[in-house]
Amino acid sequence: MSLSRSPSPRRGGGWASPGLTSPYENVSGKSSPRKTYGDIQMNGSASATGENVTWASAKARSEEINGYPSFSTRNNGFFSRHARKISTSLPTFSLGGRRDFADKEKLGRGRWPPIAGSRTVRYLQRTGRVAWRFRLRLGIVLGLLLAYILFYATPLHRVYRRTSWLGGGSKYVVILAANQGGGVMEWKGPREWAIERDSVRNKKKYAKKWGYDLEIVDMSTKKRYAHEWRESWEKVDTIRNCMRKYPQAEWFWWLDLNTFIMEPSYSLQSHIFNDLVANTYRDINVYNPLNISHPFKSPHLDAVARSPTGNGRKDSIHLVIPQDCGGFNLGSFLIHRSIWTDRLLDIWWDPVGYEQKHMEWEHKEQDAMEHLYTNQPWIRPHTAFIPQRKINSFPMGACSENGEDPKIHYSERDRDFLVNMAGCEWGRDCWGEMYNFRELSNKLNRTPWEKFKDGLSDGFRALKARFAAKKEEDEDVKS
């Protein structure tokens, strides 16, 4: 049976379709209209002449059109000609083990073959697998270690400690009173030079550690008038000069030369200013060696002036003073930049004080400050007192009339911040006290490595002493 329409796209011809054409014809489905390459008529000269296009003629014509020669050279360069010789002459390395690259799963390719019987290699491989498994945690630990090295073990930590919006070190100035050139009353000997050297070095190290500014002022004794030496009165003038020199600073810490910072790891912020209200007290009746009547009870004063603690706010404190057994002590005190401070310094530096009261006030500015606090109501609301051992501990030789006082004298167990050898020039050894406290500070602030070395040296020293004692005993027995 044949169809009226042929499945071939060409009219009247095509290939056989099994099941649609006659069953007696070739219906294998394998016959198809084939034409050889020579049967295809090409455009151009080949079609015009009726010649068959061969592969060689088509290739030659294509090369002529593209502009390439009929053949291309190979291995013309020196390296191209000798590359195989060079590669075969290179040494080869065998890492051991069996590598069968013909396998489908080439698991051993590109890996170091294990060394049979080596515990070290197996341990390293196991460590590497564990480290890779905990790579995130290990990365965090390494990051923290790197941050510690950058910010604590290197000088980089001084940058952020000094920055005003990070550490805040630029807000504080340490003023150290020194006598670098001697005075007119007496020459400085070797012990005085040694005291000054250790004190200045101690303050420089502390200020550098926490990013503070250090101002070393020359407080040499100068004869201002025919009948007196105005040495201590220069504190007020020096503070005002420092306020002009450091306009960004807020707090100024005055220190006498005979002071030594025992704990340089304490910053002023963490030790005092982070909680200034809790570290100070406004009511002088808490510790009142001068028996000053407090507060004022005059009815014309406002409520703040008649309050024993002022307004109780932190921002109203502009002067922080410690007290010893005799009253105010200005060997170590803090003063804040403010309008109230400018007014106080003006009155404190009044010529009436140092011209008419210098014979009556033995301690100069210290006695003047006590007089102002006693008689001026506007002084008290902005003045706070700090426990003496907080910033001004005394050695046993000072204020020792009544024996050791836990409120005044230095305590090694409590690790007091600073020691002031006040009055050591009157019958005490200033250099001996400075040396002892310096060595004690070095011992208390040793690093773990220094403690380890000192422990070894102490152990060997004790062992040597034991052998020496045993040897003496043996000699005594023999004799």
UniProtKB/TrEMBL annotation:
Protein name from the UniProt record: Glycosyltransferase family 34 protein
Region of interest: Disordered: 1-52
GO CC annotations on file: Golgi membrane
Top-level taxonomy: Eukaryota, Fungi, Dikarya, Ascomycota, Pezizomycotina
Keywords: Glycosyltransferase, Membrane, Transferase, Transmembrane, Transmembrane helix
PANTHER family recorded: ALPHA-1,6-MANNOSYLTRANSFERASE MNN10-RELATED, ALPHA-1,6-MANNOSYLTRANSFERASE MNN11-RELATED
Stored InterPro entries: Glyco_trans_34, Nucleotide-diphossugar_trans
Compositional bias of kind Low complexity: 1-10
Stretches with biased composition (Polar residues): 42-52
Residues annotated as transmembrane: 134-153
GO molecular function: glycosyltransferase activity
UniProt superkingdom: Eukaryota
Family affiliation: Belongs to the glycosyltransferase 34 family.
UniProt GO BP: protein N-linked glycosylation
